[in-house]
Specification:
Elements (H helix, E strand, L loop, with lengths): L1 H44 L3 H16 L10 H19 L5 H19 L10 H17 L2 H25 L2 H15 L8 H20 L8 H40 L1
Length: about 260
Amino acid sequence: MKKIIMVWFFFSIFFVSIVAMAEDTTSEEFKKLDEISNYAWQLSKQNRFEEAIQLLQYFDQEFKNIPINTKVYSVDELHVLTSSHHKALDALEKETIDPDEKIKAVTQFRLVVDAMISEHQPLWGTMEEPIMTTFSHLKSDMEEGDLQGFQQEWNEFLSLYEIIYPSLTVDVDDQNIKRVETHISAIEGNMFLELSEHTKFQQLLAMEEALQDIFHHADKNESDPSLLWVIITTGSIILLALTYAGWKKYKADLALKLQRKEIDK
């Protein structure tokens, strides 16, 4: 029994080490991709689109060479990454697209890559100030009854939110995103304009709270369920081994005491 426990113990330690090494390898490779995406982003902001295209093509080559560990990045996260990459590359390659839209697409991609490797303070979090400032203007326009100004600010808000949305799907809990999406749908609907001014303003306040919750509680949960299972299993085996050893020692001590009592008699 003791030998079996020890075999399982060493096997679990070995497995944990393999998982940790695989995660470290994948993370290091993604750091290289992060640097490439950053260079492409910087070039696009300088309107050096041809060079940015070359870097995004290089990114694609490097990404395909990475042995993806789905214990580190989920299938959904990888889909968001590849989708935003294709969108950015497509925008850069089309001459008919406005330069600002090209930069927007590359920025969106850049934020996704960063979100996948950042443990704290992801880049998309820096968008809090412009987004919340625009939202503040929305509330002011609503209070003043300036519907034209409200619509302009609303379009600006949607443009900014669209930039961070893909990275939110990587970093933020689905329920928090759905709260914001529900408010957006309600304000976009035809019924919104027919509501009372008080009800409209309350809708905006509720949406503002949902946005603040995203920005203030956006830290990604870095705990991987499979790795936690391994750690818990290993801990259980260690505890079992110690309990077994203690029980054996107790039985041996008890037997020794009984033997001494027999001798004393």
